[in-house]
Amino acid sequence: LEKVNSWEAVVSTQSTGVETATKLPELKLHPKYRSNAEVKFMATLEKPRQVSGIKAGKIPLVRTLSSTKTWPEGNPTAGKFLSEEEHYLDAEDEPYYASKEVERLDDNLGAYTREQPQSDIIERITESRHQRHKQALEDLHEELGHLNKAIDPQIFNHLDNTKEQISWILSEIQILFSGIEKDVILYTYPLKRLQMLWDDVVGLLQKRNTDICSLSEKLTDTERERRDQITELFKQYSVLFHEIAYLSCDAINVLMDGELYSSNLLLLANYNYYANIISQIKLENVVKLRELRGKWEERLATWRDLHIHDTRSKFIQFMGTPAIVSCPDLAAVYEQMKCEMKGLLERRLNKVRTISSLKPPSITCSAVSHWYEDVCSLSLTLENTNSRYLAKLAAIEEKVVADCGFVADKMLLALKEEGVCSDEEGEELKQEELVPLIEAWHAVNRDKARATEREFTEAAAQFNANLHILYDFQTKGAKIWMDYKKAVNSKNNELSAMMKSCRQKHDDINQGLESALDMEMDRMRQDTNEQDLKRNLDRSVEALKEIAGAYDNFKTDMSDVIKHYPGMVLVELEKFASEVRAHLGCTEERKEEAIEGDDTTLSDSKPDEGTFLTETPQVAQQVAYSDEKFSALQQVLVQIYLDHLDSLKVEVEEDSAQNVEEKLSEIKSEVELRHHIHAPRAMRMRMDIFNVRVNELKNHDERVKQHAAGIALEISTLRGEFKDLGNEHTGKGREFKDLVDDCENALPSFEKTAHLNSLQTKVTAAYEEHMNQIKFELSTFRNKMEEKLNDLRESNQHFGLAFKPFAEGGNFGPDEIEKYRKKLEKCNLKIDNCETYILTELDGMESKCLDAAVEITNNFEIKLSMHQLDVAFLEKVNSWMSNCQVRIKTEVAACNMMSKKLKSSIEVLRKLIDSCARPHPDKPTVVPEEVLAAIPSIYQLFQERISYLDCAKNTPAATVKIAQDMSDIASIPDSQDLHSAVSITRNILQLARKSKVPIQEVESLEKKKPVPQENFYDWFIAKEQKEKVVTKRGKSRSDTADRSKRLGSASSRSSMMSVVLTEVQSFLPIIKKILQETQGALFVSSEAYYAQYQGPPLRAQISENLETCMEGLNKRLNNYYLQAEEYFNKCIQELREQLTDVLSLHTEVPRLLFSEILEKYVTEVSQKTAIIKHQFDQNKAKIGDLRETNKAQLKPILGHPNNEVDLNNLCRKEEDRMIRSGDVLNEFVNEMRNTETALAKEFVESVNECVQRLLTLFDQLITTDDVILGKVTEKKLPVATLLKKELRANLESEVLTTGLSKGGQQIRLLNMSDISHDSNSSSKAASVTTAKHTPVHEETVSSKNDVSEEYRNRFGLVMEQLDLISSQWVSSEEKWKRQWVSSVQHVRNLYKPS
Fold first, then answer.
1. Tens digit of pLDDT for each residue in 4-21?
2. Residue 1022 has what pLDDT?
3. Which of 53, 977, 1080, 1184 could form a disulfide with 1054 if both were Cys (CB 3.0 to 4.6 A apart)?
4. pTM, two decimal places
5. 760 vs 415, 737, 875, CA distance in Å?
6. Helix, strand, coil percentages in the chain from 3-state DSSP, rounded to 5
7. Which residues, other chains included, contact 778 with Cβ-Cβ below 8 Å and sequence gap of 6+?
8. Half-sphere exposure of 476 (CA within 13 A, CB side)
């Protein structure tokens, strides 16, 4: 702020006017203090200027800030001059302006000057313009100076205000920092409060920065105002210069550019100095902020040091507590460790002493290793126990360290929560100040644990060294003993090898002798006579004796080898003894004593327990133990080895002697066994070779004889099989004939062509099967014969090849082979003779069987064809009758389906009416319109049903004409009333009186009345005038031809009978058409059958002639028609029941529709009137509030004359309220009446529309009166009952009528007068004329009247309520008016003089 005066000096210097501004030196600003516009402007000043044209009156002030090419696209003045830029780009100042001055002058200047004299008007005008131009330029400079003088004071005020504000902010900051100067007070401050102090300081500095920014904005706004005023001023004078026109436009533009340049230079200089001032203030603000921040951070660091010092002191005090210095948990673990380690050491020592039990002969290296592993395991257990307790100690130490660390962390957390230090600083404080204390305690206890561990490690190493020495000693002793055992085993193996070598030598000798023996035996096997066999047998016996002598030599040699074994074992024993003494370190004297066997010396010199052998002079100590216990244990082991060496020699001698004895015994037994096996070989040679060869010679002769006998037997067997085959074929021919006879006898029992065809197929198949089987058996036998004979030939050939001589591996001699081959040739000759005989007989057997089977089959075919013709006719008749039944049943099924569909539609209508009339949550929701929509489909179904049954009254009957003689079968009259029944009864009674016959007899006669026996089928086929009796079928062929001529061809008659009913679609005519077509087809089929067949029919079902056959068929068709007519009558009765049911359902429909209309309009009226009533209640409440307000304002003070105006105003307000009350009442009543009346009209229209819809719909309703009655079996009543009914009918005044459907009537519709009782309403009402009048029409009118009556009653009740409300309202208002007038008069009278 010390530089404010310099700022003011600068501003005053810049504000002296245009002249002062033009003398400013060239600006040299640092780039960082320049804006982009300044930089561009300075770059433009350094470039050479170029002249550009500007139109008069449009001089942009900022145009000189940058060149034309660098203007931004958004500059509003840039686009206006871009088009002229290229035109003026290359123009020069003077030449260009001179050309512009003379461009409009004439080219011939000389002629012009000669014709016109010179005048000075131009000079005078130019001078005048010059003076005016100069004056205008001076005025421009003067106004610029006045403008600057007016704006400079504003700048001084802005600077003074900013200076005062900055001074106040600095004083406030000093006050804030004075509170934290002392450390005692600073320690009590929380970090939040220190932060708040700094936030206050920052807020003040920000306010200072805001003031500086505000100063900058104010200065900028002031300069912007100066710029705008200069811009307007230059615009005015630019226009003025162009009006003076002393200079050309371009010159004026150059002049104005110069002036603009000077003014812009002034403005930029001001902006530059303002920016310098603001930047210096902001820089000072930043420096001050840095200074205050350093001071605040210094006090904050002091505050943190105070808190950290306090925390350090508390932690040192904590580490000095007894719980940390002497930890009880560590002492307990040390004591427990001492006890457990002592027990484990005792166990290990006992295990080491068990090595004395490992001694020869049971000692092995593996046993010593196991002992060593067990001791090492105990040592490992000791180490693990030590490690475990050390781990426990370490865990306790870690726990204590963790607890200390937790306390330290807790203290640091408190510091962090207070904001004394950050996480990194807290961690650093912990590592530098607190952790060393913890580590010091930890180091003391860790050194103690390490000392304990070191002692244990040294003891373990010493024990392991002694154990290893002892283990080596015992392992070496075990190895010496194992080597001795291996040496003894090797001597045993050497003995076995010597014995094996001796055995092999004698085996080779025996093998040579056995080979010589085998050669002699082979000679015996190939001899062909008994003399050679005996000679070779003697030689073989001599060879056997030589082999027995070789066995005795084997025994002698093996005994000599075995007797050398004891010496070999004693050599190994001496070697073992020397090694043991060398291992034990015994002297030569001790060795001699051991050899002599002086056991007493050893036993006397054996030391007591605890004494070592090293004290005796005979044993030298080889290895020094660090523990005396191990030394004593090794002396015990030395003594054990020496004792065992003394007893081993005796054991070895005894074992070797025993072994020699056992082996000699084995050799002796083996030689004896060989002699035992060799002794019977001579006997076996005689039996197995000599005797076998003799038997072979005998067997060869027997085999050839058996082969020849076998071939002869096979040939005889084959001849027997051929004879059996012929007998078998004869039997099969008889079986085939029996089968055909059975089929021929079964022909009359079959009723279908398919069965006959199957029977024919069966016979044909049996024939083919019979012949195929004959052929197959013959072929099989031939193949079998050929195969068997070929097998015999091959067997004979193979048997001849089996005679192999000895050279080829056989056992036949040459003489034997030649003799046997001659016998085989005779066998081949027998085989050829047998084959020739059998083939000759087979050729005639097949043709004989074929001829017999063909004859039997042809006889059956002749009878089968006759039966097939009859069965085909019967099947055709049955087919036409079945087809007729199927077609009739199809029509019946279609009729039933139509009835079922109608029933389902009626049930749907019943359910809809029930759901609509009696709603229930379990039923579907149905509206009356859905019920009404379901009715037309039912009408359509009824119409289709009636049309199909052709049962409508007043409808022409079907085109089929029934014969007059069938009147008894025709349907009865459509309706039979009571009068007809009574008249019939009367006639019966009169007839009884005339004939004097009792009534009961008359009734019995009526029952016994004969029925016409005219056949029904007469209306199918016209009768003949004259019948001709036909007796036999065979004799009536000419008569049948005559009848065919009279009746015409079958096709013409069929077409004639089908023409009548081609267009009929009702039930009974369709049935008649079906019967007619069936009858024609049956007649044609019958006529064709009787025309082509000769002789009487084979079937009893077939008549002898055509007329009898057609009579039976027509009776069946007549029965079909009677059944169809009965079914037709049932359909009529069912239809009448359905019509009655639908009529009863229709009676509920009108009431449902009218109830819905009534409910709809009642609901709509209730909703609309509820809104009107709600609005009326609100208005009523407002009027009541106004009444209460006026009542409260009517005070006695208003009666004073001075308050007359207020009283009159209050009275006028009350009058307005009363008027408003009447308006509200009238509005409510009118709206209610209008709403009720409008909805009543809509109700009437809806009801009338519904009535018209229902009446139009119900005009299509079909009742039982619209269909025929059909056949109704009436209940026969007694005569007295019938007479009583007649008398009762006569007494009645009106005649009974049974019809439901009457003629159409005119039904009156509703009118508004029926609802409102308004005399002004029109009394005329519209009406509707119906086509018929049924109970449903009556129910419609009745429901309409009931609904209109109910709505009229409600309408009248609403009107009465409105009248009541209106009268009550009016009476209340009149009563209040009287009370108000009385009260006002009373108030007026209060201040009147008495």
1. 343 333 333 333 333 333
2. 33
3. 1080
4. 0.40
5. 124, 14, 18
6. 80, 0, 20
7. 725, 842, 845, 846
8. 14
